Amino acid sequence: MTEFSMLAIEPSDVAFQYLTDYFKTDPKITCIREDFLRVPVEPGTVDYIMSTGASHHSHTDGFLQRSAQWLQRGGYWLIADEMISPFETRKERHLNLLRHHLAYMAPLCFPWPTTDIDNRTPAEQEFVADFNNTVPQAKFLADNGDADEAERLCRELLSRTERHGFTTKVSEPQLAFWRLQWLELQALVAGLDYEVEQKTHPQHLIKMAEGAGLKCVAHERVYGTVGLTDDCAGTHVMAFQKI
């Protein structure tokens, strides 16, 4: 896509610093630190919109409508994002959300490598042990339908780990795997608490997009967390075309 000029939109101050540093030598890419929904629209002027992991972090209907306004007819809206399995009730959504996030986290709960010297601080050792003990237990409960108890364990784990106050500066590079779990745990609890965290299932998003004038022309689940089909939870890639 070297013939295109690109506009990169990022609302986070920290992420924007990384974004601008990464693209500082590319004159075809303009970076804007702003909420996507607040950027002034020039209707029908954009050929492609790409969204990675952002479609559920804002008002989903607004996100779809704004994208459709910007796109020219025949333009494409391309997304890669997490989605959960189909649900009918709020309780089913909570259970599916728990199962989805815990399925991302559980494979990272591996034993810390045994060496003669452990450079981790006591707080870091406690952090790793807490996740390794709690996440598999919470996943077992969620997989067996006990959403309330699994949710309780996750909330308590988040409360304990937030007291550590970890940043990107850690004593061992392997701790990145547990920091990733921490971020996933934060997303899990946010999904339970806040309607703005609009994680949904694929067919629901497809129907919402149709209401905005965007037709799904390609869909693949590239990483599955729950279930066996493309309609189930995991990381999904979708292509929509403005009709």
TrEMBL record:
Pfam families: Methyltransf_11. InterPro entries: Methyltransf_11, SAM-dependent_MTases_sf. Residues 7-78 form the Methyltransferase type domain. GO terms for molecular function: S-adenosylmethionine-dependent methyltransferase activity. This is Methyltransferase type 11 domain-containing protein. It comes from Aspergillus fumigatiaffinis.
